[in-house]
Amino acid sequence: MAPAQTSASAGETSAWAPLRDKIFRGLWIGVLASNVGTWMQTVGAQWHLVHEPDAATYVSLVQTATMLPVLLLALPSGTLADTFDRRRLLLAVQVGLFVVAGTLTALTVLDRMPPPLLLIFTFLLGVGQALTLPTWQAIIPEVVPRDELASASALGAVNTNLARSAGPAVAGLLVAHVGVAAVFGLNALSFVIFAVALLRWRRPPESGTAHAERFGPALRAGGRYVRYSPVVRRILLRVVLFVLPGSIVWSLLPLVAERELAMGPSGYGILLAALGVGAVLGALLMPRVREHVPANRLLVLSGAVYGLALLVVATVASVLVVVPVLLAAGLAWMIQVSRMNASLQLFLPNWVRARGFAVYQVVFAGGQALGALLWGQVTEAFGLRAAFLAAAALMLLGTVTVRWLPLHHQEGDRSPAVYWAEPHLMLEPHLDEGPVLVTSTFRVRPANRAAFVAAMQAVRRSRQRTGATRWGLFRPGEATDEFVEVYLVPTWDEHLRQHEGRLTGSDEQEEQKAWALADGPPVVSHLLPADSGD
């Protein structure tokens, strides 16, 4: 993949800097249109169900039906996005979403949209979102310089929250004066706008390995990367601790508008608009906030603000109080989400970026879906205020855990690094040949042994992230100064990918630290199955 262009000016801190690039600007506007349509769809669907029997369950199930497909399909979607052309994949998905949304609109006009069928169509639209989200996130570094990725991540949050502001407000007006079908129709149109933006982008051809990664091995490789990456795992944990209690706002705000504040659909749109405006304000503040407030302290402050906002919503039934409190909650939500999104964006290498973001989306959407279902049931059993009080307590408890479970301060050089010597074999294995056992023999002086063993633990994680299924470090009983690193790779193809671009500059630095403690570079051998070709 051609590298993203360099920044126009070093040290650019403007929140809007990525929008100067016409490619990113066009795609960002297309995503904004799609997001506005999605939020209009959510409001229309929820308000269509708000007067049904068991409304709390039906309304919360709209969120569940929207997010559940991400749990089921995000990782396969990320695998497809890392394997095939990301632009063409997004185009195909937008066409499918247009067909689904158009059918939903037509059936609603004909008054043939009972609650169960509406939830099915909501689920199908969620399938499209599951296919879109990791692919879009993986595209961003292709068109934005690395030093603007944090700003691009914040702009992603601005995009989402502008949609949360405009979409519900417009949907509320349309529901009140035209009807739900108009909302569904505009959602269908939004997918056309994003498709046009994609058609205007000419993606550079892929570089790197000459053959595409197969789906099954690629799916497993993405899972291994996340499993053996402490940085990614900690980001995902912080997402769960924030989103699970925080999801109550997005799933049950229609009931707050109707039952606690006596507001109609337009009033519900105003409440969501307050959340969105707060998020946009947070995005504008983020560049300067990042310069002065450490990441983990930022998580504590924003989590505390969000938790206190939930307490106010639970105890104060006043529009004049709740609206500004929701504005603060929107700001806190944006800071949390954009901070973790940017951390992941900066850490993931390109070869696994969509798969990494797919796992992120699974965790994020899973927290929202499970949270929506949980808070809907708590509301049915104990009431709306009790549910918000419980969510506030859980949010504040999760915020306290930052002291013991902080984000890892690790980024390093994430650019591809091809530094291993090309293997020269007498045998010619097929790409699917395997497993392959790779050994590296080191000579280490007694004074360096303990430090060498410690340094090789970072090498272990690198091997496992990039393809190894098993790893070990051994000492031959016949020699006192030798160490043998052994790791198993499923196929010769997987091992070649380690040679050809899966490793990063950070991996190289970790290996060099270990090798510097040995007497010269290791002697490497590749052990193939006994029935390999001659």
Write a brief structural summary.
This protein has 534 residues and is mainly alpha-helical. It has helices at residues 22-49, 55-83, 86-109, 115-143, 149-177, 180-199, 215-227, 230-260, 265-292, 295-315, 319-347, 353-382, 384-400, 449-466, 492-502, 505-515; strands at residues 436-443, 470-474, 482-489, 523-527.
Radius of gyration, whole Å: 25 Å
The proportion of residues in beta strands is under 5%
Low-confidence stretches: 1-12
- Helicity level: 55-70%
Which strands sit side by side, in order, in the main sheet?
2-3-1-4
Q: Say what oligomer this is.
A: single chain
Give the overall form: elongated
The string of secondary-structure elements, in order, is HHHHHHHHHHHHHEHEEHHE
Number of strands: 4
H/I helix tally: 16
**In whole angstroms, how far apart are the ends?**
35 Å
Describe the overall structure:
The protein is mostly helical and 534 residues long. It is built from 16 helices and four strands. Helix 1 packs parallel to helix 5 and helix 12 packs across helix 13. The two termini are 35 Å apart. The N terminus is likely disordered.
Essential attributes:
534 residues; mainly alpha; four-stranded antiparallel sheet; 4 strands; elongated
Write the layout of secondary structure elements.
Elements: H1 22-49, H2 55-83, H3 86-109, H4 115-143, H5 149-177, H6 180-199, H7 215-227, H8 230-260, H9 265-292, H10 295-315, H11 319-347, H12 353-382, H13 384-400, E1 436-443, H14 449-466, E2 470-474, E3 482-489, H15 492-502, H16 505-515, E4 523-527
Antiparallel strand pairs: 1-3, 1-4, 2-3
